Amino acid sequence: VAQYVLSYSGGVLSAGQTVSININFNLGETQASDFTTSFLTELSNQLPSGVTLVGNTLTFSASAANSFSFNVGIADDAILEGTEDYSLTISNASSGSINNAVVNTTIAASDQENIVWNLSGDNQVNEGDSSNYTLSYSGVTLGEGQTASIDLNIN
């Protein structure tokens, strides 16, 4: 789970006033399957009282706190993929200026630890015959265009 905090400062809203900002989720090197739910669904399920989300626009009313935290669930898949990056950006503030408009997040690769290699084959072979071996792996699924390799030495 990745946790984020969105806040504003510099003023207090009067009754009936609102401020809004756009929030965007950029997949970067990730895919939708790297997350437990879609970003906007995840965000909308965690909105505090007084904050609304329409499309990708968050609107804070006077009754809302000026800060809230939300989480983005990261899926624990078995795909061998290495580290991946994604980002959240805010833009188009209805008033004021934006500080820290981009948060880049890296999903650390834990998949490489799960790959298990296995070599099996003939324990004995007669002269003149061929020996048969099988090299296999398990524990991960290779994504499209990905490879896994191991050094094989014959002594």
Q: What does this 3D model show about the protein?
A:
The protein has 155 residues and is mainly β. Helix content is 4%, strand content 39%. The protein contains 1 helix and 11 strands; from the N terminus they run ββαβββββββββ. The chain has one helix at 39-44, and strands spanning 2-7, 18-26, 51-54, 57-61, 67-72, 79-80, 84-91, 102-107, 116-121, 133-138, 141-142. The strands form 4 sheets. It has a 5-stranded antiparallel sheet. The two termini are 47 Å apart.
Runs in which pLDDT lies below 50 for 5 or more consecutive residues are: none
Q: Characterize the quaternary organization of these chains.
A: single chain
Tell me the helix content.
under 10%
Structural class: mainly beta
What is the residue-mean pLDDT, rounded to a whole number? Answer: 89
Strand order of the biggest β-sheet: 3-4-2-7-8
Binned strand content: 35-45%
By DSSP (H or I, 4+ residues per run), the number of helices equals 1
Q: State the shape.
A: rod-shaped
> Major sheet, described briefly?
5 strands, antiparallel
- Rg, Å, rounded: 25 Å
Query: CA-to-CA gap between the ends?
Result: 47 Å
Question: In total, how many beta strands?
Answer: 11
Output the helix-strand order: EEHEEEEEEEEE
